[in-house]
């Protein structure tokens, strides 16, 4: 299952960077790329992903000084040509991030998600750096998000995640700091705790949190004039689907309309 909020996160604090802003930003981009390549080498990531850059004054975080979001990296410099020359001064925070597609296996068969991982690098104007990795799949867990045992799935996938965390620690020269337990699982320095042994914190975390969360985001897209309306979730009539594409030329599929 793929979630909209992280199943778990891990953090590293590499040594602070010094020098001109351009060199610090360049190192941050390099770190982001190295982590992506580490995941790709293990077969966890299968594409370049989409990049975002946000530069903010920490005294006014709600009003970024510069931002570029969700630009495909494979198109070239997905972070925008100005990103490498941003004025990273004291009291400012630069955040670089990647949404990465990837794969896991179930009974030897490949499964793919367009957002399996996110990688984020925060660089403070004073030089401090924080690296964060998040995953949005339950393929590493011994119980899926509906509390169904899946030890075989975890055995296929969890070792690669553990190797990735170890290699990122070696890459950064910093210890792996697992994030706090989430609604779905408890991250550890090697991956996740064994839910078959310790039990899940919530019953059916998928139905309890993910389904209502997705419905709320979906309803936020409904035009304001439809506020308060409800929609049937079932029908006795035939349902037909039509592929929705972006533009007549590119034909890029966006989804399916029912």
Describe, in plain words, how this protein is organized in 3D.
It contains 4 helices and 11 strands. It has 258 residues and is α+β, with helices and mostly antiparallel strands. The strands form 3 sheets. Strands 3-2-4-5-6-1-7 form a 7-stranded antiparallel β-sheet, covered by helices on one side. The chain starts with 7 loop residues before the first strand and ends with a strand. The model has no long low-confidence stretch (mean pLDDT 87).
Characterize this entry briefly.
This protein is α+β, with helices and mostly antiparallel strands and 258 residues long. The protein is 24% helix and 29% strand.
Keywords:
two-stranded antiparallel ribbon, 24% helix, globular, 4 helices, 258 residues, 11 strands, alpha+beta, seven-stranded antiparallel β-sheet
Describe the largest sheet: 7 strands, antiparallel
Order of strands in the sheet with most strands: 3-2-4-5-6-1-7
Shape field: globular
* Rounded Rg: 20 Å
Give the CA-CA distance, first to last residue.
Answer: 22 Å
Fold topology:
Blueprint: E1 8-12, H1 21-41, E2 50-57, E3 66-72, E4 92-106, E5 109-124, E6 129-135, H2 151-172, E7 177-178, E8 187-188, E9 191-192, H3 195-198, H4 205-220, E10 242-246, E11 252-257
Antiparallel strand pairs: 1-6, 1-7, 2-3, 2-4, 4-5, 5-6, 8-9, 10-11
């Amino acid at each position: 299952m793929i979630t909209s909020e992280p199943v778990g996160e891990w953090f590293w604090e590499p040594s602070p960077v010094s020098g001109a802003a351009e060199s610090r930003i360049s190192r941050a981009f390099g770190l982001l790329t190295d982590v992506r390549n580490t995941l790709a080498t293990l077969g966890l990531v299968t594409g370049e992903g989409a990049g975002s850059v946000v530069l903010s004054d920490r005294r006014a975080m709600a009003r970024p000084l510069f931002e570029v979001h969700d630009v495909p990296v494979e198109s070239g410099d997905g972070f925008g040509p100005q990103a490498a020359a941003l004025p990273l001064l004291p009291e400012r925070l630069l955040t670089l991030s990647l949404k990465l597609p990837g794969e896991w296996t179930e009974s030897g068969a490949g499964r793919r998600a367009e957002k399996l991982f996110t990688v984020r690098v925060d660089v403070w104007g004073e030089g401090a750096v924080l690296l964060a990795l998040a995953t949005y799949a339950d393929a590493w867990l011994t119980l899926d998000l509906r509390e169904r045992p899946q030890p075989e799935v975890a055995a296929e996938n969890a070792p690669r995640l553990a190797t990735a965390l170890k290699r990122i620690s070696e890459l950064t020269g910093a210890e792996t700091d697992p994030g706090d337990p989430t609604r779905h699982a408890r991250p550890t320095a090697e991956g996740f705790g064994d839910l078959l042994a310790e039990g899940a914190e919530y019953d059916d975390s998928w139905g309890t949190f993910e389904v209502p969360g997705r419905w709320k985001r979906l309803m936020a897209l409904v035009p304001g004039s439809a506020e308060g309306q409800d929609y049937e979730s079932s029908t006795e009539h035939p349902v037909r689907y039509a592929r929705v594409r972006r533009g007549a030329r590119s034909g890029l599929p966006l989804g399916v309309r029912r």
